[in-house]
Amino acid sequence: MQESVMQRMWSSAHLSGGNAAYVEELYELYLHDPNSVSEEWRTYFQKLPANGGLSTDVSHSTVRDQFVLLAKNQRRAQPVSAGSISTEHEKKQVEVLRLIQAYRMRGHQASQLDPLGLWVRPMQPDLTVQHYGLTDADLDSVFRTGDLNIGKEEATLREIQQALQDTYCRTIGADYTHIVDSEQRRWFQQRLESVRSRPSYSPEVRTHILERLTAGEGLERYLGTKYPGTKRFGLEGGESLIPLMDEIIQRSGSYGAKEIVVGMAHRGRLNVLVNTYGKNPRDLFDEFDGKRVEGLTSGDVKYHQGFSSNVMTPGGEVHLALSFNPSHLEIVSPVVEGSVRARQDRRNDPVGDKVVPITIHGDSAFAGQGVVMETFQMSQTRGYKTGGTIRIVINNQVGFTTNKREDTRSTEYATDVAKMIEAPILHVNGDDPEAVLFVTQLAVDYRMEFKRDVVIDLVCYRRRGHNEADEPSGTQPLMYKLISKQRTTRELYADALIKDGVQTAEQVEALANEYRTALDNGLHVVQSLVKEPNKELFVDWRPYLGHKWTPRFDTRFDLKTLQKLALKMQETPDGFVVQRQVTKILEDRQKMAAGGLPINWGFAETTAYATLLFEGYPIRFTGQDVGRGTFSHRHAVLHNQKDGETYISLQHLYKDQPRFDMYDSFLSEEAVLAFEYGYASTMPNALVIWEAQFGDFANGAQVVIDQFITSGETKWGRLCGLTMLLPHGYEGQGPEHSSARLERFLQLCAEHNIQVCVPTTPAQVYHMLRRQAIRPLRKPLVALTPKSLLRHKLAISTLEDLAEGTFQNVIGEVDALDADKVERVIMCSGKVYYDLLEKRRNDGLDNTAIVRIEQLYPFPEADLSEELAKYKNLEHIVWCQEEPMNQGAWYPSQHHMRRVATAYKPTLELQYAGRVASASPACGYPSMHAEQQEQLLQDAFVV
């Protein structure tokens, strides 16, 4: 029998025994009127997990009788069929129930959300009694309330409408009826209607809200005075964010959360750093003064900086992390999700109880940036879900200089995109801090209960321009005329507390003075900050710090163990029916493991993963079609032909092995790559891989490559070992299925920031992947992987190559040429090597050696010099590539090659053989492709 809500409540030791009757009485009072119990008990009762239905199996206690009554009310509220209506009053009863539903669906459209009063919204006709054939004469008639949670079964129409008006049309606009799940909708109805969306808060809570508002406003005033006109993207007009953040953290901590990861753009970031995370104001002032951060070659502006700290909550110590992020307004959101997933994996927290993501957005960016949709789309998928994200929109009603709704979006609200995943949206007037507190509590409780995303739309304004050097009245004259007269949120709330006798004017002034004094003295201003944090809550990066680049790294592995692992990978469970062609692949791999067949790419790659797992390295691998592999070479995920179930042998190598996670991603590049960057930058001991379906498709994630992967270390000191596998090669398949845009990565290379490799043998990919995990150096790896080489007759290796070899940055000539006769060296990377090799062998051109550069960055000048030194009579040195001249490695890397060539012989001239410059990465006609390929091969031997 399913355990009831009260049974679960009683399972808590301090609520059992002699206290049971007292608790029953409290709970009965709470069910009738939540404001009739203390805030502590109300919070406890609100956090009771829902069952999805109310148990009626036991009725011997007062509290359970109340559950029975509620269940009856719910049944009574079911729609009445037309045939059962016999009187005029019953007809009106049906219309009253329709009115109730209309308020739930449309009430937010009549709510008072805008502190400036600029929003002019027409009266919704279906929120009037007249719309339902009712008149003022019916206002004092008594009707059944149905499932309306107002504490009684019957009420006058006047009472019903007033309750609906108070609940749905004041300073909170609850937008939740688009949720399909009826349990979630009922949850919101109960929570909102039972307190009319305005619970009573104790004087202590209200004073704390004022203190947090004072901190939010106080920092902005202080910075405005100390650094006038300096950009800070202040929070003025949206100061309610500070008590909002405080409540999220404290309430999440009371649920047992251990980590909270936040991503946000510029607006209010400095305020959150100081007033939420506890950053020392003196450190912030140093940044305003232009002080450099040691160890960062470029650094970043202060409103891009991340931070971490620990704070104390009712549930214990919580680690807070604020992600670093660039100026791209929304790209940090999927990075946060990846970091959170890594932390959850580390804590064995698959549900998301212990690590909570929060993302903070601007209204125009939230509505306008496509990565927001992509991040929402990943929220419930297997490979990317994090147990629900609390999303906060700082809605200051203007995007830079654009504030007309018809210019900023095509939807009523900036947050409507969230409806695509049925996320509830809680619109709230930022000048009503108690309403902000209430929706924050709702958001946290909803996330913890249902493990889904929830959005808080904090409707506020921007007191200054886009930044403090900007004059906004030139483009928003009417808005800023109102803002100039608008009293601050703190002032309005302080007046309310003084009026209610909660505070005196002197106490309000004292709060402001105390905060300003703390800033003057450079003191921490977060009272809950833990000065000596629990370091177990941190990610330990110490083993990966301070390592230098090394040209070679030992990646050998015991041959017999390698063979055992390789054979284990080919096993399938009893009764598991594998597709016919896949069966052939597994049989061939068994022969490869035994030494009976040369090793191909798929065998070498998957064996690399097996050996790393054996040595204790977790692996995460995502991307479109990665289980099978776009080109059907991997088959790491097998599909049972009988029932469609899957089996991943890499997850079953031995007992208690590390995680091996492999997910076919949804059709996204930008959000998924950002997610994997966040994951890899939080899980340093794991091999984290993203593979593009075609290398060209990384174009859709260029912002992640530019602003995180290649520059995150020099800007923020953030190490990351992410691996990108980008299929690349000219096969006559047209412009968008040929090039991974190698040139773009090479143009971004500097200061040893990333690795760019183009492996050409199975053994090379094996050692490249092993090196990436085993070597403690954590740098992103960009690997241009082949397509036709996956099954090329010459692209093979041996078991000994895997067991004894290492990754070779440069591979010299493989044929037994007479070095004294060699007059020409052709340098190349990738698939074109095999075309050159076959042409040379066919044409008998034994005066030409072919050298492969397998790592293009950091460029292996010493290894290349060592190869050239073998040839004493060298007269010509050529770089050959398949890409057009303005693409590929020619322009970004020729200075490296030329430096090596001239060091060998000052008169040696580096020459080019390849396609002519082109605006397109490749041609789309197979015949033209073949002609171009033949020409560049010819040029390589004669230029």
What would your notes on this structure say?
Mean pLDDT is 91; it is low at 1-18 and 52-84. It contains 32 helices and 24 strands. Helix 8 (203-226) crosses helix 19 (505-520). By secondary structure, the protein is α/β, with parallel strands linked by helices. The protein folds into five domains: 5-76, no CATH class; 82-118 and 125-193, Helix Hairpins, CATH 1.10.287; 203-531, Rossmann fold (3-Layer(aba) Sandwich), CATH 3.40.50; 559-804, Rossmann fold (3-Layer(aba) Sandwich); 813-942, 3-Layer(aba) Sandwich (Rossmann fold), CATH 3.40.50.
Question: Secondary structure elements and their pairing?
Answer:
Layout: H1 5-10, H2 20-32, H3 39-46, H4 62-76, H5 88-106, E1 142-144, E2 154-156, H6 157-168, E3 172-175, H7 182-193, H8 203-226, H9 241-254, E4 259-264, H10 269-275, H11 281-288, E5 307-313, E6 316-322, H12 332-346, E7 355-362, H13 363-368, H14 370-378, E8 390-395, H15 405-408, E9 425-429, H16 433-450, E10 454-459, H17 477-483, H18 489-499, H19 505-520, H20 559-569, H21 580-593, H22 601-614, E11 619-623, E12 638-639, E13 646-647, E14 660-664, H23 670-680, E15 687-691, H24 702-709, H25 712-716, E16 723-727, H26 742-747, E17 755-757, H27 762-774, E18 781-785, H28 799-804, E19 810-811, E20 824-828, H29 832-843, E21 848-853, E22 855-857, H30 861-868, E23 876-884, H31 890-904, E24 910-915, H32 926-942
Parallel strand pairs: 4-6, 4-7, 7-8, 8-10, 9-10, 11-14, 11-15, 15-16, 16-18, 17-18, 20-21, 20-23, 23-24
Antiparallel strand pairs: 1-2, 3-9, 5-6, 12-13, 17-22, 19-21
Helix pairs in contact: 5-6, 8-9, 8-10, 8-18, 8-19, 9-16, 12-23, 20-22, 22-27, 23-24, 30-31
